[in-house]
Structures are given as C-alpha cells and as structure tokens.
Amino acid sequence: MANMVLIGAQWGDEGKGKIVDLLTAHADLVVRFQGGNNAGHTLIIEGEKFIFHLIPSGILHEGKQCVIGSGVVVDPEVLLREFEQLRAKGYERSLEQLVISDEAHLILPTHCRIDQARESGLGCRKIGTTGRGIGPAYEDKMGRCGLRFIDLLADAAALKEKVYAIVDRHNRVLARLYDQETVDPGAVLAGIERAAGVLRPLIRKTPYLLREAADAGKNILFEGAQGTLLDIDHGTFPFVTSSSTVAANACAASGFALGLIDQVLGVVKAYTTRVGEGPFPTELRDDTGDFLRDRGGEYGSTTGRPRRCGWLDLVGLRYAVLVNGLDAFAVTKLDVLSGLETIEVCEAYEYQGRRLDYFPSSVEMLAGCRPILKRLPGWQEDLSGILSFDELPANARRYVNFMEERLGIPAHVVSVGPGREQTIIRNNLFTGNGRRAAIDNS
Ligand code: GDP
Ligand code: IMO
Ligand code: MG
Questions:
Q1: Helix or strand run (H / E) with residue 190
Q2: For 355-406, how does the pLDDT look when each residue is reduced to its tens digit (9 = 90+)?
Q3: Quick one: 350 and 227 in the same domain?
Q4: 438 inside domain
Q5: Distance in Å, CA 18 to ligand 1 centroid
Q6: How far is the centre of ligand 1, averaged over its atoms, from the C-alpha of 298 (Å)?
Q7: Residue from 21, 41, 313, 412 carrying the catalytic annotation
C-alpha cells in the first residue's frame, strides 16, 4: 500500500494532469488539496482532450473516488460546468465519483470581480492572475469570513444571511475601492442554491474518509496544483498564487497524517515555462523561446495566454527538491527538445558579479540574476513513439541522467508526448518503496 503526493516543481503547467491520470491506475482515491480553478490540468486520452480545472485528474478512471479536499477553493458553477462537459463526452456517471470536503471554501462571483478589478488597478504592477477569484477567496478564508460547503447544509435563512453579508462586504470593496458596479446578492444566492442542489449529496467530512481509506489499505494520490515557485511562502512573492503549493500541504490542507505518506513525486518539465508576471532568470525572448512555445504548445490551459519559455533552471529545481522533500521526479515534454543543436541548463545564477547557488527570496534580486548556463548536446530524433528508456537517443538519456545527478533524485517517469501511452515508466511508483517503506525496513 502506498500514498503519494504529486506536486509541480516549477511555475506550474509541468504536466501534472497527465502524470496523475497515469498513476490513477494504481490509486484508489485522487485528492486535490489546494488551489482552485486557476489550475488547468490537461489529459489526452486516445486523441481526445480533457482540461480539468477543479475535478481531480483521476476522474476518467471509472470507480476511482475523486476528492476535493478542505484546502481547495471551489467555484461551484465552474465545477458543475466541468461535469456537464464530461457528461457530453460520454462520462455520464463521473459525478458519482466525487466527494467535496465540507471544510472547503466557495469562490463567489464577487471574488472574481474583485480579483479582476484589483489587477486592472495595478496596471504595470499587476500579478497576472487568472482572474478566477483565487486570492480574494483565500483572503476571506484567512480573514475568517468566507463561505464553506458546510454552510450549504444549514437552513435556507442562515445561508441567505451569510451570503448577503459577504456580498454586501464585497460590494463595498468593489464600489469604494475600485469604482465598480455592485452585484445583486439575490442573484449570487440563487447561483449558489442552484449548484448546491446538485452538490449537497457530495459533501463529506473528508479527513475521516481519507483516514478510513488509508486504514483499509487503499492507495491515495494527492494531486498538487500550480507549482513550487508559485507557493505563497516559498515562491516568487508577490508573483505567486494564494495557496501553499508544496507537498507538506497535501497533509495540512487535506487533514491527512504526515506519517502515512510514502512518496513525494515532483513533476518537472524538461525546460521552464511561466504564465503571468514575475522574474524568470532563464527566460528566452528569442527564436529558441518561440521554438519551445510552438513545439510545446505552450499556451495556458486556463486562460489561453502564451506561456513564457526558457531553459531548465536547476537553482529553482534544487529548491523544489528541498522544500518538498522530493523522493523522485517525472520529467515531461522531453520530446519538445528534439531538433535543438544544443540545450542549455542553468546551474547557478550570477548576481552583481558573484555566483549564487540558492533561490533568492527577493524578486528584485531574482530579476537581477543572470543564469550561468551549461551547454549540453541536443538530439534530432522524434521521441514521441519511444516506449523504453534504452531506446531514447544517447543525448536524451544523458540529459535525463544529468538532471538526476544534479538534483540528487531519480527520474521514475519520462514523458515523451501528451498521450497517456507516450510515457516511459522506469519504476513502479506505487510499490511503496519510498520513505515509509524505508522506515518500516529500518
Ligand atoms: P499541468 O497544469 O501541470 O497539468 O499541465 P498543463 O496541462 O497545464 O500543461 C501541460 C501541457 O503539456 C498539456 O497540454 C499536456 O497535454 C502537454 N503534455 C504533457 N506531457 C507532455 C509531454 O511529455 N510531451 C508533450 N509534447 N506534451 C505534454
Ligand atoms: P496549474 O495547476 C501556471 C499563476 C498565474 C499568476 C499567478 C497568480 O495548471 O499548473 P492566481 O489566479 O492563482 O491568483 O494567479 O499564478 N498560476 C498558474 N500558472 N499554472 C497554474 O496552475 C497556475 N495557477 C495560477 O498565471 O501568475
Ligand atoms: Mg496547467
């Protein structure tokens, strides 16, 4: 039995959705633990594309339970729309696989309005958020005045009172701070009621459910959203998201015991991308950057924005290995690098004439860092049909081995295309050979 946390090790969009889908074959439950519909996790199954913003990426596996954990912020209308899209694609019973924590907070339309108004007010200092209301919803949570799924189970009068109080407060912010039109609280309540009619039966006290599943020997896969460098504490603040995206939060935010986690897997794109604002030392604003964007289809799964592209950054990745305690990683999009004569990798930064081996906390400092790049030989072959590590071109194997050596952890998975089958699994990840097995054997 094994429980695994999977997180993004860069600035998001590493290919987490694809890897989660793949690993779900060995899991019994898949749990989203933070973030909201700022996430966009893409799966390509037999040529058909699915993008999940809120629904855990295990949903396409019949019978697997998908859990929206306590730390997620949920826009209920978006959630229902996702299920409608799934139904239209023939997945009629997927709603039955879902459970939502009664502790999870709701994103209201006014959270989205505040997010967007604030961003336009910031002008060139904007964060480049997804505009999905994530920051304002987490602010209400931390301010202890948000609306939770448990509130949907209260009587109608109590729910109305709560919703009207929140919308009234939001309206004052919208009107006074941002000079925006206010929102009708009755319409907000009607939207919540509509969604609640469908979602109420799915609401549970999920920490009990997760523990019972673990005690029954089931495998639980925790699906991170965003990435380590977007973490509220450890990322490039303030150009970050409003939740804790690191592995330890899978436990904190889901109410799951730390000691029951067997493996922490980081998903690492073979190069780096970033959406939104903020420093990005290895960014390529040239033909190579365009090459990566075109070849990698680097356009946001949530907003459609072009992603900024650059070389692999080992400084950021070593920090991700450290703060998440990664046991291993999955490298994705190796196929995208085919055709490059040389591939460069950032080994350290140079800041004001000095070498820097750590990831600085100041964005001003990070913006002043120049990457110290090592050149590695590329390869020309198409990798998208390769099924085993040994069949990869020698330089592609060397690239992965170089990553392993510099990060000090093994690449258990190598992904060579967006499809489920375009994956080289080098180690059975759910055999429980991670940290708990090591403790048990000691
Ligand atoms: P996530 O947010 O981490 O789940 O990643 P996204 O879905 O936002 O972005 C990853 C994109 O890369 C998606 O379009 C995937 O279909 C695609 N993808 C994932 N793995 C691979 C791969 O190994 N090769 C290629 N070419 N595309 C991949
Ligand atoms: P997945 O799970 C990439 C970025 C936004 C912005 C910053 C803050 O698909 O990897 P927010 O709306 O969260 O307040 O925006 O975070 N961002 C992501 N970038 N992938 C994501 O999710 C992201 N979710 C948020 O672009 O820079
Ligand atoms: Mg994404």
A1: helix 185-199
A2: 999 999 999 999 999 999 999 999 999 999 999 999 999 999 999 999 999 9
A3: yes
A4: no
A5: 7
A6: 9
A7: 41
Domain count along the chain: 2
Q: Which ligand sits closest to the CA of 11?
A: 2
Tokens of 170: 């939001």
Q: Is 313 a catalytic residue?
A: no
Residue closest to 81 by CA, chosen among 44, 43, 37: 37
> What are the strands of the beta sheet with 29-32, ordered from one edge?
203-204, 98-101, 65-68, 29-32, 220-223, 4-8, 263-269, 328-332, 411-415, 423-425
Whether residue 57 has its Cβ less than 6 Å from ligand 2: no
Our answer to whether residue 41 is catalytic in this structure is: yes
114 and 173 in contact (C-beta within 8 Å)?
Answer: yes
pLDDT-derived band at 316 (thresholds 50, 70, 90) equals: very high
Domain end position, chosen among 155, 170, 198 = 198
Supply the DSSP symbol for 107. Answer: P
Same domain assignment for residues 69 and 126: no
Residue 192 domain-assigned?
Answer: yes
Domain that holds residue 123: 105-198
pLDDT digits (tens, 9 = 90+) for 133-168: 999 999 999 999 999 999 999 999 999 999 999 999
Structure tokens at 421: 């089958």
Q: Which residue's CA lies nearest to atom 20 of ligand 2?
A: 12
Longest distance between any two alpha carbons in the chain, whole Å: 67
Does residue 294 share a domain with residue 171?
no
**Among 198, 231, 246, which residue terminates a domain?**
198
Q: Which ligand 1 atom is nearest residue 42's CA? A: 7
Residue written as token pair 């073979």: 270
Domain shared by 272 and 388, yes or no: yes
φ/ψ bin of 182: left (φ > 0), alpha (ψ from -120 to 50), beta (otherwise): beta
Q: Are 185 and 161 within 8 A, CB to CB?
A: no
Question: Is the separation of the CB atoms in 276 and 129 below 8 Å?
Answer: yes
